[in-house]
């Protein structure tokens, strides 16, 4: 899982760099290309059995949520710091708690609700609405985190009826095809070797990261590996400093720590329950 987060941090950094030259929809589509090709090869080798689902509609819903979440994230990082965007996505487990309580009717006690509240306070500290540093793109990242949580809740439901390979296959094809519809309107052909190399690396590492996540979930429970997701902030902070000359301030770290601690507490309480 740690290796997957390392890959995803590089992918997000490359995506932000590419927003200077390409439309976000094209970047998302090219990012999904690696996963799409990987799944296609898997189906050729193993056969199409992975496409047999007990609930194809719900699989497509998950794919749509994944596609829209990734798209909004890329639109967002075109305007705000990658470290800020990464930290805000950490509220996804808090959204999962809210959706679990309201949609799945899961019992959530006062302690977890308090953790959710503290996590959102951390988000406000990072975003700082009303201050000069605030940008409306923060709302895009916030919505992306919510859609990621929707994807996770749907995944939880699908895990009882479909194999992981089936879910990954549907997500790869659904998101790739949905975003592919917009490519004729936004497509810009890469002209330089640097852009081609960046796109190739982004697609390759994106697919590799998804594969590593799957392997980690086969080796351990999702609850036990979930906290490792927070290591992404280490890599994005490093890349933000080295590439974008962006040094997170004290308030950023205060907000990030509140979000991470809240998320870890929610995960721990969920595992206990």
List keywords for this structure.
single chain; 273 residues; mainly alpha; 13 helices; 77% helix; globular
Describe this structure in words.
This protein is mainly α. The protein has one domain (about 1-270). The protein contains 13 helices and no strands. The longest helix is centred in the C-terminal third of the chain and has 27 residues, at about 195-220. It is globular, with a radius of gyration of 18 Å. The mean pLDDT is about 85.
Number of helices: 13
Number of domains: 1
The biggest sheet, with number of strands, parallel, antiparallel or mixed sense and barrel status, is: none
Count of strand segments: 0
CA(first)-CA(last) distance: 24 Å
Strand content: under 5%
Helical amount among residues, as a percent range? Answer: over 70%
**Helix-strand makeup class:** mainly alpha
The unreliable regions are none
Name the helix and strand elements from N-terminus to C-terminus, one letter apiece: HHHHHHHHHHHHH
Instruction: Write down the overall geometry.
Output: globular
Q: Roughly what is the average pLDDT, rounded to an integer?
A: 85
Rg (C-alpha, Å): 18 Å
């Amino acid at each position: 899982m740690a290796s997957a987060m390392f890959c995803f941090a590089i992918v997000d950094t490359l995506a932000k760099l590419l927003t200077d030259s390409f439309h976000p929809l094209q970047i998302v589509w090219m990012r999904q290309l690696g996963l799409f090709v990987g799944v296609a090869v898997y189906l050729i080798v193993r056969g199409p059995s992975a496409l047999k689902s007990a609930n194809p509609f719900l699989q497509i819903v998950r794919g749509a949520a994944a596609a829209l979440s990734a798209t909004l994230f890329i639109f967002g990082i075109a305007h705000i710091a990658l470290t800020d965007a990464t930290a805000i996505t950490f509220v996804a487990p808090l959204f999962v708690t809210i959706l679990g309580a309201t949609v799945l009717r899961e019992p959530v006690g006062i302690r977890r609700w308090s953790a959710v509240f503290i996590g959102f306070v951390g988000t406000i500290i990072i975003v700082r609405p009303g201050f000069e540093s605030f940008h409306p793109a923060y709302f895009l990242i916030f919505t992306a985190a919510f859609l990621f949580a929707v994807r996770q809740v749907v995944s939880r439901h699908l895990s009882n009826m479909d194999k992981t390979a089936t879910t990954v296959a549907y997500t790869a094809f659904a998101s790739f095809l949905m975003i592919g519809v917009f490519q004729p309107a936004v497509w810009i052909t890469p002209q330089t070797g640097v852009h081609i190399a960046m796109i190739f690396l982004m697609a390759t590492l994106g697919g590799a990261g998804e594969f590593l996540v799957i392997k980690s979930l086969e080796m351990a429970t999702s609850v036990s590996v979930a906290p490792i997701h927070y290591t992404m902030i280490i890599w994005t902070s490093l890349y933000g400093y080295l590439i974008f000359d962006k040094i997170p301030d004290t308030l950023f770290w205060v907000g990030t720590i509140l979000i991470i601690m809240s998320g870890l507490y929610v995960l721990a309480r969920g595992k206990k329950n």
